[in-house]
Amino acid sequence: MSDAPLLRVDDLRVTYRTRSGDLPAVQGVSFDLERGASLGLAGESGCGKSTMANAILRLLPTGTTVDGAVLLDGQDVLAMNPGRLRSVRWTEGAIVFQGALHALNPVQRIGAQIAEPMLLHRTQPSKRAASTRVAELLEQVGLPADRAGAYPHQLSGGQRQRVLIAMALACDPSLLIADEPTTALDVMVQAQVLALLARLRVERGLSMIFITHDLSVLTDVCDDLAVMYGGRIVEEGRSDELFHTPRHPYTAGLAAAFPTIGDPASRMNPSGLGGDPPDPAHLPSGCPFHPRCARAEDRCRTERPLLMPAGELRRAACVLVEEPS
Ligand SMILES: Nc1ncnc2c1ncn2[C@@H]1O[C@H](COP(=O)(O)OP(=O)(O)OP(=O)(O)O)[C@@H](O)[C@H]1O
Ligand SMILES: [Mg+2]
User: Is residue 196, in this structure, part of any structural domain at all?
Assistant: First the structure.
């Protein structure tokens, strides 16, 4: 069992029920995450990154349809009963949510908030043991232990993000999912939080899924990258190779869109890509990227490309890449 990947996602499909009909936000995503490895997930707004992250820990609205398999340490998350699932969410896989900077309880000291999951899931035998652990966690995320007595409003955005990371690590999970953990932070603080996550991963042997729009950020933190478009992975490979020699035209556009880390202007309007991301409910025929692709040919309008080998440890879903050069 220990040779098996920590996480196996197999043909995951997620469909939201909305007033205007079904919205297939994730349309067949598969990947493995080995123990201690880190995977970066990139792609423009609405391509399904958060949906996939939330599906891994089954944190989706009631009524959402989830198909496929999610095996965390060999256990099928999609088949777990609610009690088992609650415990798995802290003790085996934890998530730092997108936009969670304001999610801390404003009237509770941060130490108590970090201790709460430990007491709930009994990973520490007593309140005293939990406070000792809170102090250790705060120091690990680069905050003085005496900040445990602070309220969230007494902390900066970067410090609050560190608290959220400490909270996610409270019950010592094997998997940490960080969904846009640095988007709301300024460039310097963003770099510090990224360095923290990279250090924690090595020190604690964590497996990590790191999500952002910004491909350039991921190359510093992640071994492997997957680029999503319209609810599917369109390219995957080793992170620096994928960033520096993209094979899929969409990856190339995304890489060109973020020449500098944290440029707010390029974040809002990626300059390497014209047009808008597709509506998952009405994906274009053939290759969903073809209406925006400068290299599109006639067949791109009709043939839907599958992920195919495109070099060593690389796969891409583009008919132009499939051809031997
Ligand atoms: N709770 C929900 N109910 C209905 N539709 C949703 C819900 N959450 C997300 N969606 C839709 O699902 C699609 C994927 O959204 P998701 O949040 O997964 O994208 P994302 O890649 O994380 O985007 P961003 O980069 O903006 O965070 C979008 O079309 C979005 O509007
Ligand atoms: Mg998101």
Answer: yes
How confident is the model over 121-132, as pLDDT tens digits?
Answer: 888 899 999 999
Angstrom distance (rounded) from CA 251 to CA 208: 21
pTM: 0.91
> Is the pLDDT confidence value at 2 over 70?
no
User: CA-CA distance, 176 to 202, in Å (whole number)?
Assistant: 13
Ligand number nearest CA of 43 is 1
Number of domains observed in the structure of the chain: 2
Which CB contacts under 8 angstroms, 24+ apart, belong to 123-132?
A: 123/90, 123/91, 123/170, 123/171, 123/172
Taking residues 40-58, report their average pLDDT.
95
Q: Which residues line ligand 1 (CB under 6 A)?
A: 16, 18, 23, 25, 43, 45-51, 61, 98, 213, 280
Reported as a single tens digit per residue, the pLDDT across 55-74 is: 999 999 999 999 999 999 99
Same-domain pairing of 19 and 52? yes
Q: Is residue 95 part of a domain?
A: no
CA of 97, nearest ligand number: 2
Place of tokens 């005293």: 128
Ligand 1 centre from 53 Cα, in Å?
11
Q: Are residues 193 and 248 both part of a single domain?
A: yes
Question: Domain with 271 in it: what CATH number?
Answer: 3.40.50.300
Residue to probe by mutation, ligand 1, list 23, 59, 267, 283, most atoms within 8 Å of CB? 23
Domain of residue 123: give its range. Answer: 104-172
